[in-house]
Amino acid sequence: MRTPTQEYTDKYAAIKIPEYRHLITGRFFFIIGLRMLGTLMGWWVYSLSGAALAIGLIGLSEVIPAVSLALYAGHVIDISEKRKLLLSGATGYITCVLLLLGLAYLHHISFISNNITISIIYIIVFFTGIIRAFTGPVFHTIYPSIVPKSIMQNATTWNQGSWLLASVLGHAIGGFLIAQLDIIGTLVCIAILVLIGISFMVKIAPKPAYKGNTEKKTFESVKEGIRFVVKTKEVFGALMLDLFAVLFGGAVAIIPIFAKDILQVGATGFGWLNAATDMGAIIVIILLTFYPLQSKQGVKLLLSIAGFGVCIIVFAISKMFWLSFAALLVSGILDGVSVVVRGTIVQLKTPDAMRGRVMSVNSMFINSSNELGQFESGIAAKLLGVVPSVIFGGCMTIAVVITTWFKAPTLRKMEY
User: Fold this and answer.
1) What share of the chain is helix, strand, coil (3-state, %, to 5)?
2) pTM above 0.85, yes or no
3) Is 133 helix (H, G, I), strand (E, B) or coil?
4) What's the pLDDT tens digit per position in 212-230?
5) 103 in a domain, yes or no?
């Protein structure tokens, strides 16, 4: 019989569990499709509008429902059978992809104008935000019920690694497919990938709710989740750091502008730039899978995010494609460290009965940082100019880290 120590030192411990493999494989194909969709949306809307603000509005369209419903979604997840909820969300996503495919065809045959097409895109993205509020946190509530706590760090690393690899492939393949197959062909490929993901998810066993959760009233349940996050300083500090660092430091939203107008590398170069951050992250995830961080994880978290801010500044001022790509690649390496540390902190500190609510709060922070960051990037680019806005974002990221270093000593001293 395997001892906890043997499980910890076995780098393949988590993926030796068949159900865990089905979960991360299904999620892998699902995320490739969604990342390709995100890449496509930015390119499509900018091509139709030629406006940086139009890209920012994509993020705003998704973040409003995703954040508004996040706390309620956490309560629903904790009182629901999670496999069924996951499959319902995945079905909702494939429906939205098919609606976008029909929209792209109608625009292709000149049945509807550019402005109407953009408006309908925003409406469909709004519905994906609703679905995301429920579906995103479910993934993170299922795998802790599959793997033992002794290999949670290993499971979290594999989970993040598969997600990041899917992001790399989704971003890069998305750019290449747009160049080769245009919008309609790319949407067909996205639909196929999401369906493959669903075919693996159906193999997961049902995950019923904890009995005690079904007896709680909605408002009381939501309050309990918020109270836990705020009182658990390591979790709250990690989430706040992610919120503000990505809010100001994320340059992904306006990469279409850099690719088209500044670096002039077209759709293929756009795909590489989009994938660069995730390529860096997957490199470090592989390293951390075999050589996990053994000490001072809190300090390393803060330093990695500060380095991320520096890389964003370098990307902003670069006029050479290779330097821009390298800056984003290194930023991904540093972001990968922070992703693993944050993810492990949240999973280890959260009791099973509260995972839905805590993961929804976590999802709310992530949605806020990514989608509001996309909106902030569009607004800042319009007000300050593209390059100054990205430099500003990198500087603000560094300022957030400095503030956190002194204001959140518990996070800085965190070790696991």
Assistant:
1) 85, 0, 15
2) no
3) helix
4) 555 556 666 667 767 777 7
5) yes
